[in-house]
Write a structure and sequence with these properties.
single chain, 204 residues, mainly alpha, 8 helices, 77% helix, 0% strand
Amino acid sequence: MGLDAVSGGAALASGAAIAWSNALAPRLARRFGWGSDGRSAATLAFCLADSGLARSSIPTVPGAVAGVALAVAGLATVEPVDRQPPSSLAKWVLVDIPLGTTLPEELLFRGVLTPALRRAYGARTGSIAGPAVFGLWHVGAARAAHDPVFPTICVTFLAGAGFDVLTRRTGRWWPAFVAHWLLNGCGAVLSSGSVFSSSDATAP
């Protein structure tokens, strides 16, 4: 598939996403004292804005160059998120995860970014690039949780690819949202080792 002369928006949005999640958002949260709710609101606002960027008509070469530069800068200056214990496991699973994690991510990645990458660079390339960006989005989170970074990228890449397939098969992004929420929610419950009234769970 030949590249459109103005297909750089998807690449630029991809780089911006990697830079936001790994470098900019954690620094802004620390600078302005955002708690988990503040970070969730800021990430939702970013994902909505980045979705618009992914749809925009930007010259291909400048967009791709700027996107790569943002991605490299974000990964070179990773700042782990300050992890705070949630007030309860119930709030974490029923509020923080669906509204603060899965909704912003699914709106951006499955709703807009991967489809934009597929349109811009072809189905095969876009289907790899979208999950790859999703995997790199989680580098800072892995560092904050003291999880191994490369396996985290691989696991989230595979999860993103699965969510992408589900979205294409159903023609809707919300089934991926539900699957993502269930996956993260089950992980939260299993990792906490506590009942829903506990205040000792670890924040996402």
